[in-house]
Amino acid sequence: MKEAAELRAEIGATDRIATLLHDAREMLELFPGDAGAESEAERAIVEARSLLEERDIAASFGGEFDAHGAIVSINAGAGGVDAADWTQMLARLYLRWAESKGFETRVVDESPAEEAGLKSITFFVRGRNAYGMLESERGVHRLVRISPFDAAHRRHTSFAAVDVVPEIEASEGGVEIKPDEVRIETFKSGGAGGQYVNKTESAVRIVHLPTGIVVASQQERSQAQNRDVAMSILRARLVQRATEERDKRLADLRGERQAIEWGSQIRSYVLQPYQLVKDHRTGVETGNAQAVLDGEIDPFIRAYLAQRALALASRSRS
Length: 318
Fold this sequence. Notes:
It is a single chain. By secondary structure, the chain is α+β, with helices and mostly antiparallel strands. The chain folds into 3 domains: 2-59; 70-167 and 274-317, Alpha-Beta Plaits (2-Layer Sandwich), CATH 3.30.70; 179-254, 2-Layer Sandwich (Double Stranded RNA Binding Domain). The chain has 7 helices and 11 strands. It has an 8-stranded mixed beta sheet with strand order 2-3-1-5-4-9-10-11. The chain is globular and about 70 Å long. The two termini are 40 Å apart.
């Protein structure tokens, strides 16, 4: 039923593009030279172009989990309180982007910093192709700005690491989690809101002993719900780990040298002394930094997907 609904949505988007362009043409033919008609036609064309760009992005997805939802984790890096604030800014960026796409979001774990911002945050983004699009955001993001926490108003550089894994159903991915491979710990939820917060040990932390992966969930009311969410995140990370290990083995066989994503800088956001957001993988940049911070990241996603498609085509030929 879910797949049928998603396919109907795809057909509906294509039909909408055709209708918009048809209406624009009719408007211009029926009222030539009319300013109001031209304005209406222009609005229809702009909407059609936006929908067409989305369909263009969707057409580039071919990965096993590209159509799935995404689990996004952001962790503060070097930069102290500015890095914690940057982590919160990035969370807002991705949540606003998801909202603009009509995706469902749910925060499942967050750790506030002592002074301001967040040490870390994990949230789900659910919608068709959410992972396929957000996979491009995995890596280290760098912020340069005049620090609002520095009384001397000096320029500071801070870092935050974004990790994105696909949301995996229990029957997918071929990963089995044995009971003796996990250690389940409970603790009191932190943060504001809810009569159960800080009163009962409803939050759950799971440690996967063979790999050392640690996941947590504390936003649900019951311990059982938090356990299910944490297991879902663990399953996704194990599948992602297996995929990365497989890709590394293939790269070693090809003799390729892969960049280490963790600790590498994929994008810089400069707010001072000038405004510029630049993706260091694709070269795409924009001077409208505020728009990017408000969630307008589609140009970066499209460029990354185009670059990935070319790389895959090159590999298949070789």
